[in-house]
Amino acid sequence: MSFARAVFWNTAIQTAGRGVSTLLGLGVLAIMTRSLGPENFGAYSIAVSFLQFFAIIADFGLSLTANRMLGEVSGQSTTFSSEEREAQGRVMSNIFTLRLAVSVVFFAMAPLIAFVFFPYSLEVKQAIGIAIFSFFAIALTQTLVPLFQQCLRMEKVVMAELAGRMALLVGISIAAWLKLDFLWYIAVIVLGSLVNFIFLRAQTGAFTRIRFAYDAELWRRIIAMSWPIGISIIFNLIYLKADILFLSVLRPETEVGFYSAAYRVLDILTGMATMFMGLVLPAMTAAWVSGNRERFLRLLERSFDAMVLVALPTVAMGVILGRPMMEFVAGRDFSFSGDILGVLIFGMGAVFFSTLFGHTVVALGKQRSMIWGYALDAAFSLAAYAILIPRYGIWGAAWTTVFSEVLMVILTAIVVVRSSRAALKTKNCFRILLSAGLAAIGMLLLRDTHWLAALALGAALYGACLYVTGVLNRELLRDLLRLRRAS
Predict the structure, then answer these.
(1) Cα separation, 356 vs 397, whole angstroms
(2) Alpha-carbon distance 407 to 409, whole Å?
(3) What does the pLDDT look like over 187-242, one tens digit per residue?
(4) Distance between CA atoms of 37 and 443, rounded to whole angstroms?
(5) Do residues 169 and 27 lie in contact, with contact meaning Cβ atoms separated by under 8 Å?
(6) Contact 26, 169 (CB under 8 A)
(7) How far apart are CA 147 and CA 142, in angstroms?
(8) Are 327 and 334 in contact (CB under 8 A)?
(9) Fewest C-beta atoms under 10 Å: which of 23, 271, 352, 382?
(10) How far apart are the first and last CA of the chain?
């Protein structure tokens, strides 16, 4: 299979797989919210959000470092020499071992800190103790993904994710049908994560051998490359996740449930941006390292076009159809979450672009330059959450989240432009904005009928306008799908 066809296949598989995974994720969310209710769903969300802090810190930039190092040793292709395979295995084995050791340390600390320092209910603390096994499996799964991204075999990742989501959906359905206790839902979540990891780990042997390894020199290089990303991720974590942590301490569990339900929808949507940039990052890194500036800039510009194409209509959809969508997904008890979604959706739109520029910073090797930016955003977010949440509750958290996301887009874009001297061409932005505006008008006209009809009309108008204005053309599609190895 040619490289261009391989990229097309991976893009199509990721798109289809993400669509199915999104539906399964929404199905899980729908069952959990209806069976647990706002209060118990809030308790579940507190446990998950608390552990996310430890999970993201335990990553410490190792996933992005793996992506970059794999791009350096063999670029991105459909075939590799035996030497390149050996180099891949050496990199992946050492990163996997390091990630395993770090995860054991951090996840062992999590329940102890929760029991001693946080005023959570006993049930929430027990949930944290159970859910650490889910996050441990997720951490190891994320460590394997860069290998499949580099080899352009993302169908393996998609299949593993779908297997985990199916196991989760079946388990959650059984728990709801039997009216089991809240903690059983946490146990089922652990099962889904383990299925995902086991399935993906079994596929790695076809590409390279991953084993426990300790190469002192390579570990020093990995840590030297990871720590700037890790520090940035910690600051990133503060402005991304501190909202729910503050809410969990200062507001009732029911409010946390409303807020988290809206946030879960956004997490599912923004996963598309991360998967897309994970596929592009090795090619972008290879282009920059080899000095192929023209190709690097073209990848950056076309990735920017792709983010605009997805982000603008998604924001319009969330603002106009947020309440009926949340009622459909989570049930009428969570209709208030739709109003929260209408605010948070602006932050989600910004996440698409911060993901683009954040991955580009890694491709450029400018992680250290971004530390100050993440620190600035984290400091602002902490201060704003501490001041606004006690006074305004959910709305203080939501608008602070939006502002911090927009600020991160600005800061990462500054680093990218200064480091690469890139001048992003925005010839398509006005036409995409016009198309999204007409789609929004269509959704507004039908929003009082049924949200699915409004969504269908908006999607049809958007696609038609993109075609008429020339945004969707052969050149754009070719540039998005043909990522040839830099020479």
Answers:
(1) 24
(2) 5
(3) 999 999 999 999 888 888 777 778 888 878 888 888 887 777 777 777 777 766 77
(4) 30
(5) yes
(6) no
(7) 10
(8) yes
(9) 23
(10) 19
